[in-house]
Design a protein that fits this description.
By secondary structure, this protein is α/β, with parallel strands linked by helices. It has eleven helices and twelve strands.
């Protein structure tokens, strides 16, 4: 039996084993997915170096460590400077970050179109960059990265453009603060909030939501903490809204696809809807 694990602190990822084990069962393969919680950095490092497992999902705070110890890395992992997936292929570890691909594939599943779209991504951290990269790969024409600090947002965009060939593929880019980019928010077809705002009771929306209007799509990566202030305001404005549950499932589907394609240990038939299988196992009504 092959073994795969989720490596992180023992909080916030209780649905992952059920999702992955349901996927393996649906694929008819004898794999087992479980917890590998490590609270101390030396223990996490030792587990990663042991390589007695076939694949890992990695949560914070160990994503940068997983990236550091990998032998090869995807562009998405390079952009994020962290890996949420490690695949062990003949003793070599390949790092990927499926956050962006999961976000985009879920929204595409919901009917959101990226080709030629104007997209705003809120936040300047690794998840934000991974999502912006996936939006560009999906064909968006204009991508804006926003944060509280305009200079930090511009540095994050420069970091992205220095590392991604996709950034030169015809899309237009901009970066700045929420205050100076109200027009970009108002003009966006899709707004993605990749900040942690909403994880604590009373958290505000990242920007002045009076700019929102019916017809826009607003996606918040936060889930499991009730309706965020941004989603509530977007609903009131007539926007189409989505929370992070769908992204959680979709990035898990991308993880299974990663493992299949890199190891060659199994295949995912085109007719197998892993998203539905994994969403049901998580108890999500998507």
């Amino acid at each position: 039996m092959e073994r795969a694990y989720i490596l992180g602190h023992p909080v916030g990822h209780s649905k992952s084993p059920a999702m992955h084990n349901a996927a393996y069962k649906a694929l008819g393969i004898d794999w087992e997915y479980g917890f590998a919680d490590r609270e101390a950095e030396p223990d996490a490092r030792a587990f990663l170096r042991d390589r007695s497992w076939r694949a890992l999902n990695v949560t914070m705070p160990w994503k940068p460590l997983a990236y550091e110890l990998a032998d090869s890395r995807s562009v998405a992992a390079d952009l994020a400077q962290g890996a949420n997936v490690l695949v062990n292929w003949d003793g070599q570890l390949h790092a990927d970050n499926t956050d962006g691909k999961g976000c985009v594939s879920y929204l595409q599943r919901c009917g959101v179109r990226f080709d030629g779209a104007r997209v705003v991504v809120c936040g300047t951290g690794p998840t934000s960059l991974a999502i912006m990269h996936a939006c560009v790969q999906a064909g968006c024409a204009h991508a804006v990265l926003l944060g509280r600090d305009a200079e930090k947002a511009r540095r994050a965009l420069a970091f992205y453009r220095d590392r991604s060939a996709a950034a030169q593929a015809g899309a237009e880019f901009a970066a700045g603060s929420y205050e100076e980019a109200a027009d970009a928010l108002a003009d966006a077809a899709l707004i993605v909030d990749a900040t942690p705002l909403g994880m604590k009771p009373g958290d505000p929306a990242p920007f002045d939501t009076s700019v929102l209007a019916a017809g826009q799509v607003v996606f918040d990566v936060v889930y499991g903490h009730g309706e965020t202030a941004l989603v509530a305001a977007a609903r009131a404005a007539g926007c189409t809204t989505y929370s992070g549950e769908g992204m959680l499932v979709a990035q898990a589907v991308e993880t299974v696809q990663d493992i299949a394609s890199i190891t060659g240990a199994f295949a995912v038939p085109a007719q197998t809807d892993l998203f539905s299988v994994m969403a049901e196992a998580a108890g999500f009504d998507l």
